[in-house]
Amino acid sequence: MAHILIAGCGYVGRALGARLAAEGHAVWGLRRSAEGLLPSIRPVVADLTVPATLRHLPPGLDVIFYTAAPHGADEVAYQAIYVDGLRHLLEALERQRQSPRRVFFTSSTAVYAQSAGEWVDEMSPAEARHFTSNRLLEGERLLWHGPFPATVLRLGGIYGPGRTRLIERVRRGLVACQDGPPAYTNRIHRDDCAGALCHLMLLPRPDPLYLGVDHEPADQCTVLRWLAAELGAPPPGLETPPASATRRHGTNKRCCNAKLVASGYVFRYPTFRDGYGALLAADSA
Fold first, then answer.
1. What is the structure's pLDDT at 143?
2. What pLDDT was estimated at residue 242?
3. Contact criterion met (CB below 8 Å) for 235 and 228
4. Which residues are CB-neighbours of 238 under 8 A, at least 6 positions away?
5. 57: closest CA among 83, 84, 92, 27?
6. What domains sit in the chain, N to C, each tagged with a CATH number?
7. Which of 20, 65, 198, 247 is deepest in the core (most CB within 10 A)?
8. Torsion angle (degrees, nearest 10) of CA 270, 197, 85, 137
9. What is the mean pLDDT of the chain?
10. Residue 46 to residue 132: CA distance in whole angstroms
11. Model-level pTM?
């Protein structure tokens, strides 16, 4: 049995904690409020951005998962969580003479700047210049150069139970395909986020970096048309973006999960069809 702290125990962290607790581990979830935690996850009420609240972490921690997400979309919020909050936690662990065998950090595939449909993997340059990517990369470097063994999992777009906005927009006919070349998207179901992290924790020597995406980078229009057909909704129309429009940062690359798969992880939802199919089935039950 391992003693595990999930720092920033939110959407992914709660699913991860429930799975680890069910496997017999002692799991603590650190968040600003204990509200929303399952009974199997022991609460640690603290704020990663306020070092004084981190003075009394659970002792004897074996594994740390840093799955925190910013509470805003500006640079200040990203700096506070992905850099300052991570630094505060690492410093608190050192002060308390903790020696976790590994710290895991959930980053994002948004750190890749490739925008012409290229395939990217762990060896590809991460050169995105938006502040969101810069703060994530700063956090990754902070962790890798820190006092404990560390692994970063760069996640694609996370979907799953409770995150059904795209389904509802397709159902209501509020989506359209963009004219032009394919616009690739990379996804991972919440349960596979949790599953991949559990799997990496059990490896004797996980590598410093993995990509967390499913098997099939998919053109956004392919996803919209498939959902429309499954829902019996009108197929999305085709629109031509204005000549002045630019593609949103980081949305047109194909991320490869071969390294994660080679490590032994088996996806529960290998493609968007499997994951969204399960959500649709649950919705109609």
1. 98
2. 59
3. yes
4. 176, 177, 178, 179
5. 92
6. 3-162+187-217+256-268 (3.40.50.720)
7. 65
8. -60
9. 95
10. 24
11. 0.95
